[in-house]
């Protein structure tokens, strides 16, 4: 109803008019603001003064709104009274009659229900009140009410009801075709539309649960058949889904579903328990149910469940052992270790894994393999790479054939630049173990090249090409090896062997660029060893085929001349001149980077020659970088310059990059090049800059920058730390105050075990007087030598705690790997190391 | 949560080749461009149990999960289809209106 407007009063005295007007305004205001209760009182007062039709309409409106509000709160009785008040004050036809009847249906007042149902017209039942019709239909077919005699006989509703009764009767007689026919005749707009859906779904369940569920999903949320849909859905479910559905239903509904699904006695019993405990299904209840109904759950599954549940319900340990037997030793340690890991206590986990490994060591090959897996698992959780590698190496003694472990160990030693021998040793072992492994052969080639063992590198490359004939890396190595050898032969004037090397290089199909290099080498060979003129001609021809631009050709000739100890100038005269203001294109910069990279890869001694050659062209490079370089090109060049330690050009790159791009790697290259690659020369302010960049790199998941900055900072901190320590050492001569025998003896124990033992020590001390306790400890651990015990306690009273911990462990039958001898040794060594030292200033 | 064996629908004693076959079959039915999440689940299950080492690792380093639903699934699963009689259907229909709230409907349309 739209907001009402005031109408002018009709007659009576002036003051009375004024009073009415005030009252009416108030009533109207209350009505318009939804304060219907107050509005009703005011309109009732007004109507006592005069029978005004507008006021009565307004009063009726207020009653109706109040009725609907109460009904929406489930207060049906109040809604009924209010609607009846509305009906008394409003002219027919009355609004919300369908709702009124639906409220009446809840009162069991059949006389009244029938009266109002009797007032329904065919149009109302068939068209205007579809929801009421739907509800009435369900109540009639379930026998909840009997009102057929009062409903309009000529209504479609009655016709459809007959069809429904026909379908139900056919269902009872198991005549599926008749059901189908009757249901088909119910149209979409029928009051029994959802009945048709539930019946179809019920018939569908044995054939296709999924299709039945799809049908049930079509029942609208407000439909009176919604609950029937939920019951059928429960029937269509199995397992946990069924149980969860049943827990939402009433006991009679559950009972029918139990019958329908033909559940057995034990299942019904379990369901009963679950229904009763549904809000109190604690870990303990579930654990006990798993044990109690293990025949229903399958004994193995129940055991598996209880085992897992022990982590949240440790009190179930005893029951577990009683019903399923004790866990085998390894399994017990494994679960403890995994629990520690789950709680983030990797230190504790390590302890329990070690205990588990001790058990596995007695179980032959299968145990050894598991032990190796555990050792590798522990390695993966180590913070320091050194520790991790140590665990990995240990794992190889249990399982010596794990290729991945060899690779990890090699990768670690490769990063440790100072451990070349160890790396070589591991590499030799790995190649021996896996002679046909492509990755390992690749690593062997790199290592041999790095160590200038070209012959060995060639052998590995040949071996690799036998396995993988298209391996570009091996081809490159082989090619460069032949050229390097040819160079060596030219330099040592063994000219008769040079041609063979060049021919072998030419046989390797690896690309035009390499063919040009071979031709050029032949040119140099002829130039030096046979005929200078013809050599020059061959060099010119080879260089004409080189498509890398004038600059790169000059650079190439310079490098080759330097490597062959030839004068540069005459050779450069053979080429088109290189102008001082020459600018390299983006592509030429990329090609230059590749050239530098190739020479650096070939031989680390090439670095000096590279520096010499770059010295001659650095001005052109710097100028060109300013004009053309993209971030990616510049970054690749920087990596290459870093490789050959050319900090001057590196600084030039950074100068161009930093104002343009803000990746953390640029800050690294700035600091790195300013310190000439030496972390000890890094300033404090630069170290702070790097710390910031490290954070950003980690946030951006830039692993390369993170690794480079992290390593540089680590070396920087190391250098700072050692210098600080040196100062203090020289002042105080060092000391051993940090030594804690308790930590030394019991530091390896996981926190929970340490706490458990500590609690036991308190128990022991409470049970015995101090004198008796000391006697017991001396008897148990020091061959009854009480004096020795007193000596130890005089030196350090903590020794008592150590012995008590040992006693606690023995009482609890836990092997903690500590003996009385170890305790004595620990406290004695502390006595030796903590002797007072003379003050160094005197 | 399903185990990798359940995802690939293979027994815990299945061989490498049986597991691979099951994986390829599953991937065929669930290619990555159709349901990427499902594909990831299948792929990850395969990676977890594809060979003896992986299976051993899975068995060693996974904390057993206390899945009560798995117990209920076992206890209340039947191979027999549910055949609903007319009697049960009618009983259910009557039981469905037990709840008084059912009658507390609020018709969508209120007409004079």
Structure description:
- The complex is a heterodimer of chains A (842) and B (112).
- Chain A is an all-alpha fold and 842 residues long.
- The termini of chain A are far apart.
- In chain A, helix 21 packs antiparallel against helix 22 and helix 29 runs antiparallel to helix 30.
- Chain A contains 47 helices and no strands.
- In chain B, helix 2 packs antiparallel against helix 3.
- The longest helix of chain B is centred in the first third of the chain and has 14 residues.
- The C terminus of chain B is likely disordered.
- Chain B is mainly alpha-helical.
- Chains A and B meet through helix 5, helix 8, helix 9, helix 11 and helix 13 of A and helix 4, helix 5 and helix 6 of B.
Name the poorly predicted regions of chain B.
Answer: 107-112
Most extensive interface between two protein chains, with residue counts:
A-B, 93 and 54 residues
* Beta-strand residue fraction of chain A: under 5%
Helix percent band of chain B: 40-55%
DSSP strand count of chain A: 0
How many strand elements of chain B?
Answer: 0
Rg on CA atoms of chain A, Å: 47 Å
Summarize the structure.
Residues 727-736 and 834-842 of chain A have low confidence and may be disordered. Helix content of chain A is 73%, strand content 0%.
Chain-wise SSE layout:
The complex is a heterodimer of chains A (842) and B (112).
Chain A: H1 14-32, H2 36-49, H3 53-72, H4 76-89, H5 97-104, H6 110-119, H7 122-128, H8 130-141, H9 156-172, H10 176-184, H11 193-204, H12 209-216, H13 226-236, H14 239-246, H15 251-260, H16 265-276, H17 283-292, H18 294-297, H19 299-309, H20 317-324, H21 329-342, H22 346-360, H23 364-380, H24 385-398, H25 403-415, H26 420-433, H27 438-450, H28 454-467, H29 472-491, H30 495-507, H31 512-529, H32 532-544, H33 549-563, H34 568-572, H35 586-602, H36 606-628, H37 631-643, H38 647-657, H39 664-674, H40 684-699, H41 703-732, H42 741-746, H43 751-767, H44 770-781, H45 786-795, H46 798-811, H47 820-833
Chain B: H1 4-8, H2 16-29, H3 36-49, H4 52-61, H5 68-75, H6 86-95
């Amino acid at each position: 109803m739209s907001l009402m407007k005031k109408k002018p009063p009709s007659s009576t005295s002036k003051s009375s008019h004024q009073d009415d007007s005030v009252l009416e305004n108030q009533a109207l205001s209350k009505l318009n603001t939804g304060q219907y209760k107050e509005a009703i009182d005011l309109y009732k007062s007004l109507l006592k003064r005069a029978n005004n039709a507008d006021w009565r309409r307004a009063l009726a409106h207020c009653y109706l709104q109040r009725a609907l509000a109460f009904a929406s709160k489930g207060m049906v009785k109040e809604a009924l009274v209010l609607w009846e008040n509305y009906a008394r004050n409003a002219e027919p036809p009355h609004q919300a009659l369908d709702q009124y009847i639906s409220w009446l249906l809840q009162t069991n007042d059949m006389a009244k229900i029938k009266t109002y149902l009797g007032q329904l017209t065919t149009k109302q039942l068939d068209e205007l009140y579809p929801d009421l019709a739907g509800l009435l239909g369900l109540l009639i077919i379930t026998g909840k009410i009997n009102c057929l005699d009062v409903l309009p006989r000529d209504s479609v509703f009655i016709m459809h009801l007959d069809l429904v009764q026909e379908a139900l009767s056919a269902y009872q007689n198991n005549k599926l075709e008749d059901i189908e026919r009757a249901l088909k005749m119910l149209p979409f707009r029928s009051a029994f539309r959802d009945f048709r859906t539930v019946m179809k779904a019920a018939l569908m369940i044995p054939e296709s649960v999924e299709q039945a569920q799809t049908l049930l999903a079509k029942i609208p949320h407000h439909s009176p058949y919604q609950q029937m849909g939920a019951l059928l859905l429960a029937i269509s479910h199995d397992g946990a889904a069924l149980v969860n559905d049943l827990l939402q239903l009433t006991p009679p509904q559950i009972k029918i579903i139990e019958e329908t699904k033909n559940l057995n006695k034990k299942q019904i019993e379990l369901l009963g328990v679950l229904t009763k405990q549904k809000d109190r299904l604690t870990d303990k209840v579930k654990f006990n149910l798993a044990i109690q109904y293990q025949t229903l759950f399958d004994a193995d599954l129940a055991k598996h469940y209880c085992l897992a549940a022990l982590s949240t319900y440790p009190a179930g340990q005893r029951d577990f052992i009683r019903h399923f037997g004790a866990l085998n030793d390894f399994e017990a340690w494994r679960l403890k270790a995994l629990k520690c890991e789950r709680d983030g206590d990797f230190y504790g986990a390590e302890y329990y894994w070690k205990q588990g490994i001790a058990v596995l060591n007695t179980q032959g090959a299968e145990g050894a393999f598991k032990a190796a897996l555990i050792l590798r698992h522990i390695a993966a959780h180590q913070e320091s790479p050194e520790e991790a590698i140590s665990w990995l190496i240990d794992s190889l003694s249990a399982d010596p054939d794990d290729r991945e472990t060899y690779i990890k160990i090699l990768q670690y030693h490769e990063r440790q630049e100072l451990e070349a021998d160890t790396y070589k040793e591991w590499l030799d072992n790995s190649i021996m173990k896996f002679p046909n492994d492509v990755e390992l052969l690749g690593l062997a080639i790199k290592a041999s090249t790095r160590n200038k063992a070209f012959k060995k590198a060639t052998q590995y490359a040949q071996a690799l090409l036998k396995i993988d004939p298209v391996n570009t890396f091996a081809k490159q190595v082989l090619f460069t090896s032949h050229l390097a050898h040819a160079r060596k032969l030219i330099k040592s004037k063994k000219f008769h062997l040079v041609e063979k090397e060049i021919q072998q290089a030419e046989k390797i199909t690896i690309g035009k660029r390499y063919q040009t290099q071979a031709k050029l080498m032949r040119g140099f060979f002829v130039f030096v060893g046979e005929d200078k003129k013809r050599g020059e001609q061959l060099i010119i021809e080879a260089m004409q085929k080189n498509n890398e631009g004038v600059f790169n050709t000059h650079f190439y000739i310079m490098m080759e001349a330097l490597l062959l100890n030839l004068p540069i100038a005459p050779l450069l005269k053979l080429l088109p001149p290189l102008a001082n203001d020459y600018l390299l294109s983006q592509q030429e910069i990329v090609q230059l980077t590749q050239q530098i990279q190739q020479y650096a890869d070939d031989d680390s001694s090439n670095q000096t020659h590279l520096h010499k050659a770059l010295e001659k062209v650095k001005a052109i490079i710097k100028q060109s970088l300013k004009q053309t370089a993209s971030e990616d090109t510049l970054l690749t060049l920087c990596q290459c310059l870093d490789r050959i330690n050319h900090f001057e050009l590196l600084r030039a790159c950074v100068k161009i990059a930093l104002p343009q791009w803000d990746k953390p790697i640029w800050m690294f290259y700035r600091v790195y090049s300013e310190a000439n690659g030496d972390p000890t020369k890094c300033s404090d302010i630069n170290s702070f800059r790097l710390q910031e960049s490290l954070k950003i790199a980690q946030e951006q998941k830039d692993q390369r920058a993170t690794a480079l900055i992290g390593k540089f900072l680590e070396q920087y901190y190391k250098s700072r730390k050692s210098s600080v320590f040196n100062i203090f050492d020289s002042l105080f001569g060092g000391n051993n105050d940090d030594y804690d025998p308790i930590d030394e003896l019991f530091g390896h124990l996981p926190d929970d075990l340490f706490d458990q033992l500590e609690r036991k020590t308190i128990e022991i001390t409470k049970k015995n007087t101090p004198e008796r306790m000391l006697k017991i400890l001396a008897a148990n651990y020091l061959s009854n030598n009480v004096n020795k015990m007193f000596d130890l306690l005089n030196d350090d009273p903590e020794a008592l705690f150590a012995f008590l911990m040992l006693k606690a462990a023995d009482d609890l039958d836990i092997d903690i790997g500590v003996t009385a001898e170890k305790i004595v040794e620990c406290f004695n060594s502390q006595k030796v190391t903590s002797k007072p030292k003379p003050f160094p200033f005197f | 949560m399903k185990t990798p064996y359940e995802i690939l629908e293979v027994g815990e004693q299945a061989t490498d080749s049986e597991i691979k076959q099951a994986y390829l079959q599953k991937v065929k039915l669930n290619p990555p461009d159709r349901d990427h999440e499902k594909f990831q689940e299948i792929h990850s299950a395969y990676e977890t149990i594809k060979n003896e080492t992986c299976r051993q690792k899975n068995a060693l380093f996974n904390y057993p999960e206390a899945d009560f639903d798995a117990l209920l699934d076992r206890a209340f699963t039947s191979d027999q289809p549910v055949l609903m009689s007319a009697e049960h259907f009618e009983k259910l229909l009557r039981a469905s209106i037990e709840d008084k709230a059912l009658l507390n409907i609020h018709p969508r349309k209120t007409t004079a």
